[in-house]
Design brief:
alpha/beta; Rossmann fold
Length: 300
């Protein structure tokens, strides 16, 4: 599951006749430059805890709501990077896209290997969620309408927080009470056995590795989940999505699964950007899910 993303988004879209070749090979910097065209507010370089890897950027709809009753739902988005890398600044195009759909997007950094190993990056993520809930109002968001989201390794982290309740409890939150939904994009949720020395180092000795698998903590009663993947993903096996969805359903939970035929591991996320949205309606579907689950009467 070692990822070349986010060094660059090299997109080979094949079959989209209306798009230019340049759009399909747009580097990540171009996607982030185009994101500046969105009518959103960007609040960068905040901190949810001390330390260089504990920064957070916030993207909020513009204009700000006129009253507390009009506050926006909030999503905390965790990027991927194989639990080894990544920077929140690479994902401006994701935050701006969500903010353009009436959602406050919080994108935090978190510590990665080799500085830390599992579960330290999950503990960092829990602190970021606590911060987002506490500070959402400053950006026009409603901290009671909170969704966890992530791509790739970030989806693993979001799912770990969602299903293994101990991590949010450590930050003073209850996943069943305080989280309205989960969005997982191309996530590894059930990826044992490990076949990488690096992953073995990240997730520790064999006897304890089952504790790193979000699928093992599904019990039923969790908030709804939206899980998406692409059939040509050769970085994270799409079977992870199918197996987690099956486990959620077997426990009586609610899950939406989307398999987008024209995307792979990277373009699934790249489809948030304007030039690539015709690849798949990932942004539309995710935004609709967030608004639906955060709008339920029980969450207000």
């Amino acid at each position: 599951m070692r990822e070349a993303w986010p060094v660059a988004l090299a997109v080979l879209a094949g079959g989209a006749a209306t798009a230019t070749a340049a759009a399909w090979t747009a580097p990540l910097a171009t996607l982030n430059t185009l994101a500046r065209l969105e009518n959103v507010r960007t609040i960068p370089a905040l901190a949810y805890a001390e330390g260089a890897r504990h920064g957070v950027d916030v993207y909020a709809p513009a204009p700000a709501p006129s009253s507390a009753g009009d506050r926006f739902p909030v999503v905390v988005f965790f990027y991927g990077g194989g639990w080894e890398g990544g920077e929140r600044g690479f994902y401006r195009f994701v935050g701006a896209a969500l903010a353009s759909r009436g959602i406050v997007a919080v994108i935090p950094d978190y510590r990665v290997y080799p500085e830390v190993r599992f579960p330290d990056f999950v503990k960092d993520a829990a602190q970021a969620v606590r911060w987002a809930r506490d500070h959402a109002g400053a950006f026009g968001g409603d901290g009671r309408r909170l969704v966890l989201a992530g791509h790739s390794a970030g989806a693993h982290i979001a799912a770990a927080l969602h299903f293994d309740r101990q991590w949010l409890e450590g930050a003073g939150l209850d996943a069943r009470r305080d989280i309205a939904g989960l969005v997982g994009l191309a996530g590894p949720y059930d990826f044992l056995p490990l076949r990488s020395r690096t992953l073995e180092a990240i997730f520790g000795p064999e006897p304890g590795r089952a504790l790193s698998q979000p699928i093992n903590f599904v019990q039923g009663g969790e908030a709804p989940a939206f899980l998406a993947t692409g059939p040509s993903d050769d970085t994270v096996d799409p079977g992870n999505t199918a197996r987690l969805a099956a486990r959620i359903r077997a426990c009586g939970g609610e899950v939406i699964v989307r398999v987008y035929e024209r995307v792979d591991h990277r373009t699934l996320l790249g489809a948030f950007s304007r030039p690539l949205r015709l690849l798949a309606p990932v942004l539309d579907d995710m935004s609709a899910f967030i608004h639906e689950v955060t709008g339920r009467e029980a969450r207000l």
